């Protein structure tokens, strides 16, 4: 950068800081729908900035949404087709750019979303830079996708899920994602993917079936928290810069616990990563 361009950049930054900050127009919106004869719900949740919570709804509710949002930048979305079960909830941009952050008091967008425990649910949550807390225990999840950007997401399965979960995919950008109670989730396949973030996968809860996990991270840090006594096999298809796995025996690109095939509960992890750090943390 030349001295002239550097000076121009500093002048531009100073001019932006000197501009008066406009106050947000904060509004609230609530929507709910009762259970009728639904066989399934295929839900997409979009909430890109603020604080968001997801959990179970009241017994009679199919879903519920409560949001507080910046009306100058976003509008609430509630679209439901009872014929197909397709549902879209959250906030969408109205074309004036992203969320303005000029003071801590302006980070006030909040969203509370709840879904029926009994109606089968396929959920795709796009959380962007939100501070997210999801408690999904007890829901009847068939498929789950959670995308988290540059902030933090906490996902818990505090009680066993109902029904049969086929797939759960978690994507982390440059932020953090913590997932607890994956044994309670009981999903046939779990996939973690992303870039330079941090992720923790904890396999606690009531075991329904053996777990199959794929980790596809480029420069992230992944911690696997696994109950002691569980059979574990790690298959590394690509280069690993760091692997901390006490109690595992190496055979080529495979690390496994002794007598893996004889274990009553097993976790098989495929590591498709280049420079990520993988830690196995045994828990009692």
Report on the architecture of this protein.
By secondary structure, the protein is mainly beta. The chain folds into two domains: 23-116, no CATH class; 136-284, no CATH class. It is built from two helices and 23 strands. The strands form two sheets. The chain has a twelve-stranded mixed sheet with strand order 5-6-2-8-10-12-14-16-22-18-21-20, with no helix packed on it. An eleven-stranded mixed sheet has the order 1-4-7-3-9-11-13-15-17-23-19, with no helix packed on it. A hairpin with a 2-residue loop joins β20 (249-251) and β21 (254-256). The chain is globular, with a radius of gyration of 22 Å. It starts with a helix and ends with a strand. The relative contact order is 0.11.
Give a brief outline of the structure.
The protein has helices at 3-18, 182-185, and strands at residues 26-34, 41-46, 51-56, 61-70, 74-81, 86-93, 110-115, 121-126, 131-135, 141-148, 152-156, 167-172, 176-180, 189-194, 198-202, 211-217, 221-227, 231-236, 242-244, 249-251, 254-256, 266-271, 277-283.
Identify the notable features of this structure and list them briefly.
single chain, 284 residues, mainly beta, 2 domains, 11-stranded mixed sheet, 50% strand
């Amino acid at each position: 950068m030349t001295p002239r361009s550097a000076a121009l950049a500093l002048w531009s930054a100073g001019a932006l800081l000197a501009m008066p900050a406009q106050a947000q127009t904060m509004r609230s919106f609530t929507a709910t729908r009762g259970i009728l004869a639904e066989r399934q719900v295929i839900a997409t949740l979009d909430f890109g900035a603020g604080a968001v919570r997801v959990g179970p709804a009241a017994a009679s509710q199919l879903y519920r949404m409560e949001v507080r949002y910046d009306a100058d930048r976003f509008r609430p979305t509630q679209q439901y087709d009872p014929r197909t079960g397709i549902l879209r909830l959250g906030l969408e941009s109205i074309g004036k750019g992203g969320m303005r952050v000029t003071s801590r008091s302006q980070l006030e967008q909040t969203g509370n979303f709840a879904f029926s425990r009994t109606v089968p649910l396929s959920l795709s949550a796009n959380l962007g830079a939100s501070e997210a807390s999801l408690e999904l225990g007890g829901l009847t999840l068939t498929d789950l996708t959670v995308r988290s950007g540059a902030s933090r997401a906490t996902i818990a399965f505090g009680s066993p899920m109902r029904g049969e979960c086929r797939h759960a995919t978690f994507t982390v950008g440059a932020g953090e994602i913590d997932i607890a109670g994956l044994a309670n989730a009981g999903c046939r396949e779990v996939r973690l993917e992303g870039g330079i973030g941090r992720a923790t996968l904890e396999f606690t809860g009531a075991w329904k079936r053996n777990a199959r996990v794929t980790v596809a991270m480029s420069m992230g840090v992944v911690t696997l928290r696994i109950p002691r006594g569980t059979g574990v096999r790690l298959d590394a298809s690509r280069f690993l810069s760091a692997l901390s796995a006490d109690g595992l025996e190496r055979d080529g690109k495979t690390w496994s616990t002794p007598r893996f095939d004889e274990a009553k509960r097993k976790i098989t992890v495929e590591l498709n990563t280049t420079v990520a750090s993988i830690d196995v943390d045994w828990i009692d």
